[in-house]
Amino acid sequence: MRDIIVILCFCVSFHLCVSQRIKITEEQSISTGIDFPLYEPHFIIDPLEPNHFLVASILITEWKEGVSAKGHIVLFQSWDAGKTWETKHFNRNNIASGYDPYLAMNTDGTVVLTSLNTFTDQRFLHLISFVSKDGGKTWNDSYTDYGISHDRQSIVVEPKRQKFIMVSSSFNRTTEQKGMRGLSFTVLNRNGILIESNWHEIFNVNKDNGEPLITKDGNLIVPLIDYSLNNKLLNTRRNWIVTSTDLGRTLSAPIMISEDGSFPHIILDTLDVNQPKLHHIQGLGKFREYKGFSASTSSDGGYTWSKKVDVTKFKGEKPYIRNANWAINNQGIIGVLWFDRRDAEKDSHDLFFSYSTNQGKTFQPPMKVSSKSSTPKPEKYRGDRRWPVGGEYFGLKTGKNGKFHVVWADQRDEKSSLYMATIIVDP
Fold first, then answer.
1. CA-based radius of gyration for the chain
2. Where are the domains of the chain?
3. Domain 2-425 belongs to what architecture?
4. Rounded Cα distance, 52 and 424, in Å
5. Which of 3, 88, 111, 408 has a CA-to-CA distance to 142 between 20 and 30 Å?
6. Positions of the chain with pLDDT under 50
7. Phi/psi class of residue 50: alpha, beta or left (left: φ > 0; alpha: ψ in -120 to 50)?
């Protein structure tokens, strides 16, 4: 456990400085015994059992030049808040590879695990789901196949009836809009069984979705980024949100939230029940320049936003800062993590953390979470070439005790493995 003392200064009618203690646990590998590289972990905490952690990850068994990867999705579960872990491999005989794992769990104990998979007799990626009805202890042998042309699927749980709403970017191949990438909304009942699916074009450009949010009254909020028109990339990528009050059957008109966007990541701040806030984090500079991240806040559902605040605070000459993830705990503290080369050797990177105690108005100086740098080995592992920081996303959740739990893919060892750490910000 590392203790870091942060001095916070507030200027009101007088000048006041107080100290705040940050505790970062020593990271531990959660994938000991796995002989293959792991990437892109998705992490959830059981809504009823706070010591039950679930992490799904890509496992690559083989990836030769000129051919598709072989592998599957593997699930790690801990029933003692990360002290010990057990594994389950979703490697049915006809599954050739698995990507983009995403987990969701409702208060009935139903767990849905989705992923994009290829099969031994088909070359296209299919979106599939496995279901557990007893909190992850046992899983159905069969899976549900939602077809091809999906990407970036993510799930929220509807709070009243505990339905699952899966949002994905997908091409509509059945109507006159064939070839246009829009949004697909797939609704599962509380037992993880398909109820309905709806597709929306929204507007005449191709787009990707970020992770959706859902409010206590069931209002669905989906962030977007547009990227191409008529097969030509846009000069700038814009961020938008759309909302739905009927689980994706109908959508609001899109609301633009930034004209110089990156992949959007929005969190919901309900500390003030009378005026919930949206917080939006986006990349600095042009798309995929990796210059850092800024944050802004909306108090009116996304129509207007505060001035952007620099989160990553890089002062050097050649930034390489990417893949931010953030969450807000039950004390209203916003925690942000990202990968950063500022203190690492060439081509290596570390995991950094910053936080805000004033609803995103300011963020504290970044601090390193990882004790050793991660060094990709692209000449040996094609997965390291495809995912130089271990994936396009990593896992971050807050517990009922306000702790920030983070799970990421790390290449400090011979192969990419999964590590976990806990960050405690004393209120």
1. 21
2. 2-425
3. 6 Propeller (2.120)
4. 18
5. 408
6. 7, 9-18, 175-177
7. alpha
